TrEMBL record, chains A, B:
Coiled coil: none annotated. Residues 27-167 form the SIS domain. It comes from Thermocatellispora tengchongensis. The keyword Transmembrane helix applies. The chain crosses the membrane at residues 208-229. Keywords: Membrane, Transmembrane, Transmembrane helix. Gene3D superfamilies: Glucose-6-phosphate isomerase like protein, domain 1. This is Fructoselysine-6-P-deglycase FrlB-like protein. It comes from the Bacteria.
Length: 342, 342
């Protein structure tokens, strides 16, 4: 199979963008201090599509370790349709939208402000509706390195909230893990090139692709299936959590069915292991994106689970570039999105 | 198109099964009293696949109205991989599995018991591992009327918990709504026959089917897409929430793409309305299952939102019967499920 579009170069700014995210840890500390000051009980992550998905790791981490803070990760339209009675000045609302102007997310942030909540806006820059609404703003300034940057911004915020909650975690190791990421993510992108090219070559033109991920990687399964394959490649795809895989979707794994599995090093790894023990026996086209396959220099062992999500997000985003090259379908082409009101 | 398998008769026991579920309101009251006695703070709904999906309406209702109770709806394997630090004797755990023997759900219920939680088991009968573990058991005794029965059992439980929480709701109207359901669900099944037959005839053999549902109906989108189409019909399908529809999946709606939308009468209806305003303009094969199209005798207006889920579940289950008839693929056929350990 020949390339139908030239392969985009690796984002030359990846280290700079991730470094910029890491350097906003001070904002995360400020948010945690504000949360402590007002006795925050609930954290609401709000977004739509890929922005919802990018909050999954922080939500999963908070849910797994916080005893005094309740974490919610909600589609902004769902949040608006039935606002939680727990929304109050003791709520921390983290509203994410790449452009900062997604209508449902802006409306949700506005509702949260009116309820007295402390609002953190997350967008590529601060010059937009979310930026105006936020008590503070987290930004990443990129059109290409988005999900991994959000993982860093929200992951660091979750760490500061867990510190406030009194969780017994190795915060210092995780801090060093995040600080290593600017170099690490640039490096894993290069190390991944051959694998990404091979996956795109072998299943880029496939008819239907299943994507499986659990724990912090559930959002990556959504990102790959819904954002990259469905929205940006107009390909048939479905995603399923590793926990649900054996309760339905696995019935479709036969012959050469294309399946992509995310294997992070967080608490969900055993679930992914079960899926990986199954897949290659029943399909000739099973692929795993596995953070454990990479060295990650400077990331302490105790931080590998935490940084698996931005590592795997980096591999996923680059895999999408290779799909574009193989299929000839630009990742920027849309039928409806940003072209019509809804 | 001719029938490839005879159409199964409508479940003659539907009224009896739903009546049996309604009659377990006393168990729900007992659970709520126990929850009050131990000062329950968190409700964990646990299950896998369709059992997870069947808890969506109760979880959505609790999340929308409870200020003092936190509701979680989790895949049982995810729960086991990273148990919540909030799990304690002040937790109410509602573990659902049709057989009562799903390994992950049984293990999750056991973990909950060991943590001192009050455990409600939900299964077709009590003679199984979940039944042994539960402090109380909710059962429905059917191989055909499953999801709607679980909706009734868990919906009534959510009502009693909301009463305990002090929510300002019309509990009496909802009680009468549930009491009307045995007759109503038998009736809507018959009224739905022609539509169900037409949908199955027109898209039963389609290549890829999208299913859209939000709020309480999100679980029904999962049920239709993952359980019925993927697992039981081996068809390509993906599901998406109404809130996320315009953030990815709608790019695939073109020409004659088959899309099934759930329109309940709960707080999520406006989200479904947005999707329905879009669909018929861009595909010739858009279908809505809409509870508002049915009279529902005896259901007070104030209860229609609450009973939308079991009404739509009934339509969905019957639609699957019509698929089976059109495709000739038995709903009981499996490649792997119940045939291999994982």
């Amino acid at each position: 199979m020949t390339e139908k579009l030239p392969l985009r170069p690796v984002d030359p700014r990846i280290g700079e963008v991730i470094g910029g995210a890491v350097n906003q840890r001070g904002v995360a500390e400020k948010v945690a201090a504000a949360a402590a000051g007002r006795g925050v009980t609930d954290v609401f992550f709000l977004g739509c599509g890929g922005s919802w998905a990018s909050s999954v790791p922080a939500h999963v981490t908070l849910s797994a370790h916080a005893s005094g803070l309740i974490s919610h990760n909600l589609n902004a339209a769902e949040f608006l349709a039935a606002p939680s009675p727990r929304l109050s000045e003791r709520s921390l609302v983290v509203a994410s939208s790449h452009s900062g102007n997604t209508p449902e997310t802006v409306a949700a942030a506005r509702l949260a402000k009116e309820a007295g909540a402390y609002v953190v806006s997350v967008a590529t820059d601060a010059d937009n509706a979310l930026g105006e609404l936020g008590d503070v703003t987290l930004t990443y300034g990129s059109e290409r390195t988005i999900t991994s940057a959000k993982h860093v911004l929200l992951g660091q915020l979750a760490q500061e909230l867990l510190r406030l909650d009194g969780a017994a975690l190795d915060f210092e190791a995780v801090r060093r893990g995040y600080e290593a990421l600017p170099d690490v993510l640039a490096r894993v992108t290069e190390e991944h090139e051959e694998t990404a090219a091979r996956i795109a070559r072998e299943i880029g033109e496939a008819d239907m692709t299943y994507v499986v991920g659990g724990g912090a990687s559930y959002g990556l399964a959504f990102l790959m299936s819904v954002c990259y394959l469905t929205e940006m490649q107009w390909k048939k795809s479905a995603y399923v959590s590793t926990g649900d895989f054996f309760h339905g979707a696995f019935e479709m794994v036969v012959d050469d069915a294309p399946v992509i599995l995310f294997r992070g090093e967080d608490a969900s790894r055993a679930m992914a292991d079960r899926v990986w023990a199954f897949l290659p026996r029943f399909t000739s086209r099973a692929y795993a994106l596995d953070s454990a396959a990479f060295e990650l220099p400077g990331v302490p062992a105790a931080a590998r689970g935490e940084v698996s999500a931005p590592v795997l997000a980096t591999l996923t985003t680059r895999l999408a570039d290779h799909y574009e090259s193989v299929t000839g379908h630009s990742l920027d082409e849309r039928r409806y999105m940003h072209k019509m009101a809804y």
